[in-house]
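Dear Dr. K.,

Following up on our conversation at the group meeting, I've run the structure prediction for Peptidase from Aliidiomarina minuta. I'm pasting the input sequence below exactly as I used it, so you can double-check it against your construct before we proceed with anything downstream. Let me know if the numbering doesn't match what you have in your notebook.
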Amino acid sequence: MKETRKFLEKIGLPRGDAYDLPSSAKRFSDGAQYRFEVPGIQGPKAMKALLDELERLEIHIHRVTQTKGIMLMGDDDISSMLELAEKAQVELILAVGPRATYDTSASVQTSEGQRMGYRLRGQEQVVRAIEDVKRAANLGCRSFLVYDEGCLWVLNEARKLGEIPNDCKFKISAHCGHGNPCSAKLLEQNGADSLNPIRDIQLQMLGALRQAVNIPLDVHTENPASSGGFIRHYEVPEMIRVASPIYLKTGGSVAKNHSWDSTEADARNRAKQVMLVKRVIDQYYSDASWSKKGSLSA
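The predicted structure tokens came back this morning:
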């Protein structure tokens, strides 16, 4: 194993998981260590309820993520969410719609076939995925949740060649199933602007990921019932210290699954979860630096 570890180090990768849990010196462009992201907000009514409740609680976030897919949204809904995002100074991330679970695949509904995740089947689905992004970009969206590594690569090429706006950003979903530094490095090289690793990733694994890449890591502080339902609030201070710059994905335990259609009441409960996580940070890592409202660039 010693030779293998030396080889990994030689090519710029960690020798293994970071069991010593070193502090990350990397930061967002504003110098902060962490930001908040609330996922699973599928439409403008839920988004407004979330933002109103956050304002009432006197706490701010930096990202709102829609997860069901652009193809399931009307233009008016997209435009309304973009207007809410601009007013609240948050980044709106829309999910690329086509995925295996929306396709005619029978395999993806089986216990073994589920391993394909939300990846795309066939080149026609790639075409449709690009069309999904083009449509939302034409309406003003610039941030997208991507579920397929090949789709990431081709969207990055489209960004470079002007097929889509060059200021588009791509976030890789936890549903891609990545959780090691080699995969993280590959995704960063292929255009990922942030990476959501597997939901149950441990602190020493996060530390190794951070050593391998510079892009922000998006980490679940809690999870829907369908992905384990576990809540990691007390681990958040160490997540920040070891993995900054980091987006804390908060509010997931309110939902039953990834594509849960959050009600306005659900959205308000997600806001409460943000408050609870912030309380833990303030008590156990009060020196951690939090991006100010409106800080959106990586």
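Two things stood out to me. The chain is about 40% helix and 10% strand. The two ends are 36 Å apart (CA to CA).

Best regards,
J.T.
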